Amino acid sequence: MTNFGQVRFEDIVKMHGDFAALKRVNFEIEPGEFFALLGPSGSGKSTTLRILAGLDAPTAGRVFIDGKDVTSVDARDRDIAMVFQSYALYPHMTVAENIAFPLEMANLRKAEIGPAVKDAARKVKIEHLLDRKPGQLSGGQQQRCALARAIVRKARLFLLDEPLSNLDAKLRLETRAELKKLQRSLGVTAVYVTHDQEEAMTLADRMAVFMAGEIQQVGTPAEVFARPNSVDIAGFIGNPPMNLIPARYIDGSVVIAGRPFKTMAGAAGECDVIVGLRPSALRFASDGLKAHVDLVEDLGDTAVLDLDCAGTTLRMRVGESVPREGDLISIMAHPQDIHLFDPTTRKRL
Ligand SMILES: Nc1ncnc2c1ncn2[C@@H]1O[C@H](COP(=O)(O)OP(=O)(O)OP(=O)(O)O)[C@@H](O)[C@H]1O
Ligand SMILES: [Mg+2]
């Protein structure tokens, strides 16, 4: 692993007129890390990436790369390679010329460019396509060409903005796995923007979850999944996401649809809460909460049920003994699987 490619954002603000696209964003990325910027549309992910790349200037705050303040350093001088959602290949150039382009710009000698292009093309498995034009490639091949053009420069930072979004589902999975292997073998730091939580969960060493111009949580995918620190994150992570139910907390239990559920999460005395319950945390129990099965979504190896519990809707994921629509079932959850959030601050309790 390299010792280059460390990133730090310090109190970064980005205003567009009165609108704050980023409100005091702080985070740090370690060298060699695969770091995802995850969040819904419009939450500020691309803005963050563009400020890191030097394509946009922040309104306030400072950006550091490897300890050096680069806030006013030109994009060209930041030693960063970037892959955008649209591949932005030059249509009139061959694949080889496209990959060579950044090296030509850097005034490398021809004798060095040829081997470097071959090497990058080999890493993403397109060495047999070097003489083609982008228009003669599939979406996935164009994607890999854009990746090759990014890695050819051996930059210390690799920025990717939704780079797989134009691929079909199968190719997206394949390219995703290749991308991770490639990043590992190159030892570079990767900053990866996506609104797809599954993509972030599978690729990232750590991720920052954005909501409305703010980072609400930073952690490993496992940490964020296990302990989402706000209602918004709880409702965003996991597929299907957590059930979020307004309820009353009374002395170590929450009351859902009239039935008490014991919880380990801490609150004092009696208060209103929002209960978070993963669909996978609900289980069958003989004397549990009575639920009417409204809908069964069969996903092959699992199924997702829409349940009606005296007017409260819950979703439940089941692996075996899938009930049928119209069935009446009885469900429970382990105390440690019950998350509590404050309905006012929307933060984890
Ligand atoms: N030039 C601009 N003028 C005004 N508002 C802007 C401008 N550029 C971006 N914004 C706003 O800033 C917010 C953040 O935009 P950004 O592109 O960072 O979102 P994003 O998280 O990448 O979303 P997506 O997943 O849709 O790509 C959005 O609400 C967007 O409308
Ligand atoms: Mg974006």
Write a structural description:
- The protein is of the alpha+beta class and 349 residues long.
- The strands form four sheets. It has a six-stranded mixed β-sheet with strand order 6-7-8-3-9-10, sandwiched between helices. A five-stranded antiparallel β-sheet has the order 13-12-11-14-19, with no helix packed on it. The protein has a four-stranded antiparallel β-sheet with strand order 2-1-4-5, covered by helices on one side.
- The longest helix is centred in the middle third of the chain and has 18 residues, at 169-186.
- It is elongated.
- Helices cover 23% and strands 36% of the residues.
- It folds into two domains: 7-229, 3-Layer(aba) Sandwich (Rossmann fold); 243-341, OB fold (Dihydrolipoamide Acetyltransferase, E2P) (Beta Barrel), CATH 2.40.50.140.
- The protein binds adenosine-5'-triphosphate and magnesium ion.
- The site of adenosine-5'-triphosphate (ATP) has 12 residues, from β2 and α1.
- Adenosine-5'-triphosphate (ATP) binds at residues 16, 19, 21, 39, 41-47, 195.
Q: Largest sheet at a glance?
A: 6 strands, mixed
CATH topology of the largest domain: Rossmann fold
Low-confidence stretches: none
Helix/strand-derived class? Answer: alpha+beta
Calculate the mean pLDDT score and round it: 91
Q: What fraction of residues sit in β-strands?
A: 35-45%
Name the ligand types: adenosine-5'-triphosphate, magnesium ion
Number of strands: 19
Q: What CATH architecture of the largest domain do you see?
A: 3-Layer(aba) Sandwich
N→C terminal distance: 38 Å
CATH class term of the largest domain: Alpha Beta
Helix content: 10-25%
Give the ordered list of helices and strands.
EEEHEEEHHHEHEHEEHHEEEEEEEEE
**Order of the strands making up the biggest sheet:** 6-7-8-3-9-10
* CATH H-level superfamily title of the largest domain: P-loop containing nucleotide triphosphate hydrolases
Task: Tell me the overall shape.
Answer: elongated
